[in-house]
Specification:
Number of helices: 10
Largest sheet: 5 strands, parallel
Structural class: alpha/beta
CATH class of the largest domain: Alpha Beta
Helix content: 40-55%
Strand order of the largest sheet: 2-1-3-4-5
Shape: elongated
Number of strands: 12
CATH superfamily of the largest domain: Histidine kinase-like ATPase, C-terminal domain
Number of domains: 3
CATH architecture of the largest domain: 2-Layer Sandwich
Strand content: 15-25%
Length: 399
């Protein structure tokens, strides 16, 4: 169809007959007419035009109308085009059956009048329009069904991911928390049984173990509670302007003992008076988790550096925590921030953890309108980088 007009091919080996029929159709209107004087001409026209109806003479020299129809029906592109056969003989049952088998929809007996031709064509145009309307409606329904199927598949996928996360949480609670708690209980029971025989050195060692275990358990529990709050969208986001160097320095001082006990150097190279506009509690969470993670996976003699690169044009700063630790295998980097994929790994001194720290950092970075990225090389170290918006600080000059 072109510009609302149906395209029709007249196939007749008599040029006079084809032209006569073409003139009849032109009087009817709303048709674009092509003439073919052989089966081959007909196939060529079908290849070059989107034909809607074919008027096909049955008896033609060379390739007959039936032979041409066979070739048309064997072509996936043309097989649905309706064919009206034309013949000067009243078709018998055998001819009618052959025509139906080849996809013919009717016969026109020559000679026919313009009125007869008009009635035939307008009848089949209505059929074509109805079929196209039904096909369009079916297409719309299919699109709706496909959309519903996609939504259901998406929902099922999200549900499965949620179940995977829940199973992972159960694994964390049952393994990463259960084992330390049971070990803690066994240790307390053992010392309680032998309390009367303990001297001050034994008690001091016991208290040190208790302190280390309690800090580790408290850290795990805090991560779990914080992650739960993130999932429930129950985190208070209170951005304000603050000095990033000052907060980073506080965290470095708090973790310096942990680093030095392991023989690791820790340095803050954030520029002094770097003002950012973010939630200070979430930023503290990010820096603390990243430094703790670096301490966990850095061997004695290693070094950890926190540094920042401001970008005034983009109004943000790239904050990096870089270590000289064991590094991360490339295949595991993409799984670091997926709870149902990531797996907590023991540190260089067999330190344990929930594996939630990096996911908390990612959530906190996104809440502060930033991103989190990682680069690592096995045996060389790892660098985690997140972005924060810089504060709009007015520069005042006293004259």
């Amino acid at each position: 169809m072109i510009n609302g007009k149906y395209e029709i091919v007249i196939v007749d080996d008599s040029k006079v007959t084809a032209e006569t029929i073409a003139k009849m159709i032109e009087h009817i209107g709303d048709f674009i007419v092509y003439q073919a004087n052989s089966g081959k001409d007909c196939l060529r026209l079908l290849g070059n035009h989107n034909v809607d109806i074919i008027l096909m003479d049955v008896f033609m020299e060379g390739m007959s109308g039936f032979d041409t129809a066979k070739l048309i029906r064997n072509n996936q592109r043309f097989r649905e085009i309706p064919i009206i056969f034309m013949t000067a003989f009243d078709p018998d049952n055998e001819m009618r059956e052959e025509a139906i088998k080849l996809g013919g929809i009717d016969y026109l007996i020559k000679p026919f009048t313009e009125k007869e031709l008009k009635n035939y064509l307008l009848l089949y145009v209505r059929f074509i329009e109805r079929e196209r309307r039904i096909n369009h409606e079916l297409s719309v329904v299919n699109l709706q069904l496909n959309s519903e199927i996609e939504q259901k598949e998406k929902f099922l996928k999200e549900l499965q991911e949620a179940l995977d996360v829940r199973h992972k949480m159960f694994a964390i609670v049952s393994h990463d928390l259960k084992n330390p708690i049971l070990g803690f209980r066994s240790l307390v029971d053992e010392y309680y049984k032998n309390f009367d025989s303990l001297d001050m050195d034994d008690l001091r060692e016991f208290m040190q173990i208790i302190q280390k275990s309690s800090h580790s358990l408290a850290s795990m529990l805090e991560d779990l509670l914080m992650w739960t709050n993130f999932q429930r969208k129950n985190i208070n986001f209170n951005p304000s302007e603050f000095d990033l160097f000052y907060i980073t320095n506080q965290i470095c001082e708090q973790l310096s003992l942990q680093a030095s006990n392991k023989g690791i150097g820790l340095k803050n190279e954030i520029p002094i008076s770097t003002m950012v506009n973010a939630d200070p509690n979430l930023v503290s969470l990010m820096i603390r988790n990243l430094i703790s993670n670096s301490i966990k996976f850095t061997k004695s003699g290693g070094f950890i550096t926190v540094f920042g690169i401001p970008n005034v044009q983009e109004k943000q700063i790239r904050v990096s925590v870089s270590d000289t630790g064991v590094g991360i295998p490339p295949e595991k980097i993409s799984q670091l921030f997926l709870l149902n994929k990531s797996k907590s790994t023991l540190g260089t001194n067999n330190e344990t953890g929930t594996g939630l720290g990096l996911m908390l950092v990612k959530e906190a970075a996104e809440m502060n309108q930033g991103t989190l990225s990682v680069s690592s090389k096995e045996g060389k170290g790892t660098t985690f980088t997140f972005t924060l918006p810089l504060a709009d600080v007015e520069i005042k000059i006293d004259l």
